[in-house]
Amino acid sequence: MTTQTITATASGTWKLGDLTVNRIGFGTMRLPQYGAAFAPDAVPRDRDQAIGVLRRAVELGVNHIDTAAFYFSSRRSANELIAGALAPYSDELVIVTKVGPGRDRSGAWEAHARTPGELRAQVEENLRQLGRDHLDVVNLRILGTDSIAERFGALADLREAGLIRHLGLSNIHPHHLAEARAIAPVVCVQNMYGLGAAPEQEEVLRLCGEQGIAFVPFYAIAGKGREAGAVASEEGGVQAVADRHGVSAAQVRLAWTLHRGPHVLAIPGTGDLDHLAQNVAAGSLRLSEEDLAALSPAE
Ligand SMILES: NC(=O)c1ccc[n+]([C@@H]2O[C@H](COP(=O)([O-])OP(=O)(O)OC[C@H]3O[C@@H](n4cnc5c(N)ncnc54)[C@H](OP(=O)(O)O)[C@@H]3O)[C@@H](O)[C@H]2O)c1
Fold first, then answer.
1. Percent of residues in the chain assigned helix, strand, coil, to nearest 5
2. How far is the CA of 218 from the centre of ligand 1 (A)?
3. Which of 26, 52, 263, 275 sees the fewest Cβ atoms within 10 Å?
4. Backbone torsions φ then ψ of 131, nearest 5 degrees
5. Residue 13: pLDDT above 90?
6. Alpha carbon of 38 to those of 1, 26, 73, 112, 182: distances in Å?
7. CATH superfamily, region 8-295
């Protein structure tokens, strides 16, 4: 596939509340460092390179960028890279951040924010780092199966106060969706998903589709490699489908998620300009019934 001129508009659009985004977006977790995210010995990425990737993503039509205040290495922060590369922000750009998890200055994980005051402090940290007076979308990122009513209610109050335009959820189980929606509208759910995902994740994807909510997979390329990144070799169906189309396995993985429904968005993360172009181009890859049969559900 020729990737040079394909832009994110080829992937189609979806609305996060009143904000229209192309279905291929960009995740910034990979930008602050080379190699595995959150590694204590991570080498900070070259600033100009990271800025170049962000600017190229936007040139290629990406208008949905995922971030978090806890995406940082010793000398780089995803939010500050975004501000450096893209401010003053275009009205078309939608920046989605997440709150809940936190890291101390050394990079060690802290207890999740749970109280309204702790969540507000994280929202304000994102506002400060991004240089904005409101956040387009904030996902409540959780761990476990506990009730999210108090935490989501606190974010709903910040939405009412004008600090946040829209709310989403991340890493949830199916029951959390109804619990949150009884409190405030949910525009997106960001969960780990891709080829070989657990049945529970298929259920979350389905529920989102039925309710007009964007489902935004993370680790769609990295899969079981998670923070460490993409696996070096592919088995079976993925490589065969990639060979048939003359594309990479990563592009097939991304395209497969987009074929799961019009409400599925992609936020692939990369610090590599060639990978960026390939990921954007994956939005134009149309998989046949034969391809889809080769990819699921055995993968
Ligand atoms: N809500 C949450 O809890 C949560 C958790 C994790 C991540 N996220 C968000 O989701 C985004 C996506 O996750 P991710 O960045 O970990 O995973 P990903 O997009 O599934 O995969 C990224 C990995 O694949 C490699 N890669 C990317 N494009 C490639 C290509 N075309 N060919 C070959 N390798 C490629 C990257 O390395 P290179 O840099 O070498 O390309 C990196 O190792 C993150 O950036 C972050 O914004 C959210």
1. 40, 20, 40
2. 7
3. 52
4. 70, 45
5. yes
6. 34, 18, 7, 16, 34
7. NADP-dependent oxidoreductase domain (3.20.20.100)
Q: Where are the alpha helices (DSSP H) in 60-198?
A: 78-86, 116-130, 149-160, 174-181
Token look-up 């592919």 returns 234
Measured by CA distance, the residue closest to atom 29 of ligand 1 is: 275
Residue 223 has pLDDT above 90, yes or no: no
Work out the pLDDT band at 230, boundaries 50, 70, 90.
Answer: confident
pLDDT-derived band at 1 (thresholds 50, 70, 90) equals low
**For ligand 1, atom 6, which residue shows the shortest CA distance?**
218
Query: Any catalytic annotation for residue 71?
Result: yes
Which residue bears the tokens 């993409």? 230
Pocket residues for ligand 1 (CB within 6 Å)?
A: 27-30, 66, 98, 141, 170-171, 190, 218-222, 229-230, 248, 250, 267-272, 275, 278-279
Domain residue extents for the chain: 8-295
- Give the pLDDT confidence score for residue 4 in this predicted structure: 55
